[in-house]
Amino acid sequence: MPTPKKKTSRSKRDMRRSHDGLEMPAVGFDKKTGEFHKPHHAHKTADGAYYYKGKQILPPKVKKEAKEETATNE
Q1: Which end of the chain is more exposed for a tag (fewer CB within 10 A), N or C?
Q2: 61-70 burial, b for 16+ CB within 10 Å, e for fewer?
Q3: Residue 9, φ and ψ in degrees, nearest 5
Q4: Stretch 41-58: mean pLDDT, rounded?
Q5: Sign of the four-CA dihedral 62, 63, 69, 72
Q6: What is the pTM of this model?
Q7: Cβ within 8 Å of residue 43, ≥6 positions away
Q8: According to the model, what pLDDT value does residue 11 have?
Q9: CA torsion angle 36 55 61 37 (round to 10)
């Protein structure tokens, strides 16, 4: 395996790594719910439903206890 002939200086090493700095993550804004989310990802809202492109794709999950209470009240 080849080995370097000379030591790479801190300056050269750091210049090579200069583009590896942290960037701000991309953020999207949903007009319907008014929440921020990752772009091109479904996001969960406070009510528990999942939204994608402003449309609800999964309804909120109802806990079993809540289902049993409504069944006994009827």
Answers
A1: N
A2: eeeeeeeeee
A3: -70, 160
A4: 88
A5: positive
A6: 0.50
A7: 30, 35, 37, 50, 51, 52
A8: 94
A9: -10
- Containing 29, the helix (H) or strand (E) segment is strand 28-29
DSSP 24: P
CA distances from 54 to 1, 57, 59, 71 (A): 55, 9, 13, 32
Distance CA 38, CA 50 (A): 13
Residue type at 56 in one-letter notation: Q
Confidence of residue 71 (pLDDT cuts 50, 70, 90): low
Gap between the Cα atoms of 20 and 3, Å rounded: 25
Helical residues (DSSP H) of 1-74, grouped into ranges: 10-16, 64-73
For 36, the 3-state DSSP assignment is strand
